[in-house]
Write a structure and sequence with these properties.
With 362 residues, the protein is mainly alpha-helical. Helices cover 77% and strands 2% of the residues. The chain contains 15 helices and 2 strands. The protein has a two-stranded antiparallel ribbon. A hairpin with a 4-residue loop joins β1 and β2 (177-179). The longest helix has 29 residues, at 322-350. It starts with a helix and ends in a 12-residue tail after the last helix.
Amino acid sequence: MVFLLLIAKLLFFVGYGGMAFFAIITKLNKDRDNSKINFIYALGMGPVIATLLLYYLLLIIPHQQNWFYLLVITVFFTGLTLINKKSIPHFLKNISWTISQFLNLIRLKKGLKHYFLQTNNIAIILLSPIIAYGCFNILLAQIPGHDVLEYLVQGEYFFNQKAIIYQSQNYNPVNGFYYVGLHGWSFPLQTTLEKLFDAVTFYGYDLYFRTLTLWYGILIIAVVYYFTKKHTSLFFAIAASLILVFTKGFFNAITSFHIDSYRIFLFTLSIIFILKYIKTPHINTLILLSIFAGSSAFTHSLSVLVAIFIGLTLFLFYQENFYNRLKSSIIYTFLILLFGGVHYIIDVFYGTGWIFNELDFY
């Protein structure tokens, strides 16, 4: 039963949420050759957009019933999808292709040699053992350390309070827990989303939260593979993927129960799109860059500094006239704040003070 519920959560947050973001990104990133890479981006952004929406709901409309928040998220995903209904068949086609590749590999329908000779299937071969090991290691593992425990407890606190309240100390009087993290609420809110889903279905376990580490690790590998293949060659795509997968730090990061792959995925997308914008400046690229950088900032404090650095780069060093630089910077700043940066502004003035105040509890 818990695994069926896990599948339902993945279908909703990753699948349905991914389809909603796919509708938007295919409007902004229109090149037909970008279909598969847009699909990968979308599968990662579905859960991210869900937590961002939940953040605003708990901040502005607190203390509602569990079903209310899931209903609003569902309506929001549906609305985004309907903005670009033509993207739905393309999204489903990408899902069908991915599933078919895994099934054919399991059956060895055309022989293993065939898969090594097919360029796209090499990525599937690389990912399969990682998925198997990661599922065994993460789904059965106990909570490994302080960080994940902190995110889980804080996410449960949001669920119990049905509100996000900024205060000088993030203290839970029920269990005596102090949240001393300096990061945004994106990752703890993943726990809150899961608990909302469990409360509505009257049954649950933290398997969805556990799978996020492995899921975003897979997406990082897929992004590296397809991005490198598009801009260089198949050889360099395979080499880059292998180097990444068999780097000890990265392998441990995506097969352990932690936040790292979640934030690294968003950070990677931010870097890709700043490079893309520098090469070919376009308002659509700027919007996507801002979305990814803002979402990354909402996940981790270090990404706030990256977002600021990107903004300064756009304004100070990009070779446009002053008016265009100013306009781009205003759009970028607004979207950064909208997609998570506003949390840090509120926290500085009405909460813990963020990095500008000394933490009393460790």
